[in-house]
Amino acid sequence: MVSSAPTATNTSSTLPMAQGGKLTVLQGLRAVAALLVVWTHSIDAAGAYASSRQGDFFHLAGFGACGLDIFFVISGFIVSLVASRAAAQDQHSAGKFLSRRFTRIYPLYWILTVVVILTAELGAHPIAWHSVSWLPTALLLPSLSYPVASPILSLGWSLVFEMYFYFVLAAWMALTPRHLVRNTIFFLGAMVSVGAVASFHRPLLILWSNPILLEFLFGCAIGLLYSRLLLPSHTGSNDSRRVSILGRGLTALGAAALTATMFTGYGTANFEGMILNGQSSWLRVGVWGVPSALLVLGAVLWSPAMQSFPARLLVFLGDASYSIYLCTVPARSGVEHFWRYLGRWGGDTGIVLCGIACTLAGVVCYLVVERPLMRFFHNWYKQIPFQVSAK
User: b/e for 63-101, b at 16 or more Cβ within 10 A?
Assistant: First the structure.
C-alpha cells in the first residue's frame, strides 16, 4: 500500500470480497510492486561499485520505480472501498478511519526513520541536520521549502501523497458520507486541473494539486465500478466468465504497456524529486499510471484464486510489502557496507543478492515489528472503542 506506496490496509483480511473469497490477487500485485522497487534500488546500489548487464539493459535501471504507481492505484481502490463501507456502517466514522490510518502508517515509518538516522550516523554519509525539515519528516506533511525535499527515509515521499489522500477521504466521509468517493474524485480532479492551469510553484500547492494524485483517483474509479457493477450479487455465472476473460486481457495489456517502457524509455518519470516538484508528474501518470490502472482493473475483474505455492508466496510478500518497501533504504545501506563480499561474483550476482537481502530484511521486519504492532493497535481499538453519541 503506498504505499503505495503501501497503504494502511495492507493485510489480505481487509481486502474487498470477491466470488468465493477475497481479492488476494491485489496482495500478489503489491508483492510485485514492492519487489520492483527493491530491484531498482539494488541495481542503483550496484552501479556505484560494479558494472552489470542489468544496469546497461535498455532502460531497466529505473524501471522498477513503476511499482509505486501500482501501489497508488491499489491504494485508491482498497482504501476508498474501506472508507465507503465504514461510512455506511457509522455516520461518525471519519475519526476512526484516520486514527486507523495513523496507527498503521506512522509507527513503522518512525521506527525505520530512526534506523536510517543511526545507519547514516554510523556510516560514511552522516545526515546534514541543518537541511532537515523535521515536522514534514516526522508527520509526512508537505515541505514548506522549494524545491520540495524528501523525508530522511527517502521512500517516505510517497507516503506524503498517501496521507493527503487519506485526509481528503476523511473530510468527505465527515461531510458527505454517502458520496465520499465520488466527491473525493471530483475534488482531487479539480485540484489537479487548477494546478495544471495555474502552474503552481509553491510547495503546498504543488503537492495538493500534483498530477500523481490521479493514480489514486484511478483506483477510486475502479472501486466504484467494482462495488456497483462487479460484486457477485450483480453478476451471473455467464457474466462472471466474460468478466474474467476481459480481466485477463486488461491485465496482460497493462503489464505489456508497463514493460514496453523498459525499452522505449520513461524520461525523468523515475526521479522522485521531479515528481515531488510536479515537473514530471504528467509524464509519469501517462507512461506508468494509466498502465498500472489497467493492470489493477484487470486483476480485479480476473480475480484468480491464488492457490498455488508461488501465488501464496506472493500473497504473503504482499502482506509484508509495507515493511519490504520501507526497509529497502536501510537494508540497501547495509548491503553497500558489505558490497566487497556481495560484489565479488560480479555486478549482476550482487544485484540479485542485494535484492534478496532487502526482501528478507523486510520480511523479518514484518514478522518481528509490523505484525506485532498491528496486533497491539487492533487490541487497543477493542479495549478503547470510540464512543459515538446516539441519535
Answer: bbbbbbbbbbbbbbbbbbbbbbebbeebeebbebbbebb
pLDDT tens digit string along 325-356?
999 999 988 887 777 666 667 788 889 989 99
Write down the residue that cell numbers 505455492 correspond to.
309
Q: How many CA atoms lie within 13 A of 156 on its CB side?
A: 27
Spell out the domain ranges in the chain.
Answer: 12-382
Looking at the whole model, is its pTM more than 0.85?
Answer: yes
Query: CA torsion sign, 140 to 315 to 15 to 95?
Result: negative
CA proximity to 6, closest of 372, 384, 365: 365
Torsion sign, CA atoms 231, 234, 236, 238: negative
Query: Is the Cβ–Cβ distance between 104 and 374 less than 8 Å?
Result: yes
pLDDT, one tens digit per residue, over 272-319 is 989 988 889 999 999 999 999 999 999 999 989 899 999 999 999 999
Buried b / exposed e over 276-298, threshold 16 CB at 10 Å, is bbbebbbbbbebbbbbbbbbbbb
